[in-house]
Description:
This protein is α/β, with parallel strands linked by helices and 311 residues long. It contains twelve helices and twelve strands. Strand 9, helix 9 and strand 10 form a beta-alpha-beta unit. It is globular and about 65 Å long. The model has no long low-confidence stretch (mean pLDDT 98).
Amino acid sequence: MHDLLQIGGITDGMRTRLEEHFTIHKLSEGAYPGAAITHVATNGHDGVPADVLAACPNLKMVSCYGVGYDAIDTKVAADRGIIVSHTPNVLNDEVASTTIMLMLASFRNFMADEAHARSGTWEANGNAPLSRSADNRRVGILGLGRIGQAIADKLAVFNAEIHYHTRSKKDVPYTYHPDLTDMAKAVEVLICITPGGPSTQHIVNEEVMNALGPEGTLINVSRGSVVDETAMVKALQDGRLGNAALDVFEAEPKIPDALKTMSNVILLPHVGSATHETRAAMGDLVVDNLISHLNSGKVLTSVPETAHLNV
Ligand code: A2R
């Protein structure tokens, strides 16, 4: 048996499989045998705290539940020869569906319409106001990777004109914008689906939101850190930004109170991939990576920063 440190929750299915190979120690229970720990199972939100990394000198591998791993210091991990895995691809379609639902709900004003039907104001006050069509929109995708491409694929059904901004141009039939503000000027909807971390911190700033404009809709399904939340609240309050549909926030699970009172905003509690089916697939991949590492010293889905160790 090997010693695994569990950070955050795991499903019963994951636990059953892991217990065949590992003695599981939970960080939430306090004391753990740092020197014995060879593997960590964590998630994109909790990552691996620096003091935990320091307390586990024999750590060999970290398996992260989620595709985003900005809460894990991969530089320290790589320097120490620790392989980090994550769960790409298995959540592409789910997060893309969440994104499309946010866009549809925002354009069609479904949250207010649902309240209008449920509350009885339809009967008392008459029909709901007209909404905006979600078809035929110019949509800018910030981060055209695995999930961004899945979003673009689903948007085809709505006849969207796709624009994108990434650091390098891709071989795709969409309009590339090397400058994010220029893309924001050109589109009606801006969808954020880059990784978090320093390179994208507040990349959607006041200038970008002003460029998106009073008729523009900002959708964030990536990381709260990608959008300057304070600037976004102000832009929405001033009417410089039209609408926002948000699944992620800077200080989760805290959401700025100002956003909760705005009718031009849709708020979700970070549920982009949160279905039974997709979370089961993510959990399986977390365990598969751990077992693969035990069997071969290699993982199935290393993060790029530790791929050179995964040989
Ligand atoms: O920039 P590129 O050419 O490496 O394209 C990547 C883009 N990207 C960025 N775009 C603009 N400025 C940046 N600083 C920047 N950094 C990365 O984001 C690529 O097109 C995309 C990321 O794609 P994947 O690595 O395939 O990630 P995936 O699986 O789509 O997930 C994206 C994120 C996760 O990291 C979680 O934070 C979230 O979605 O759930």
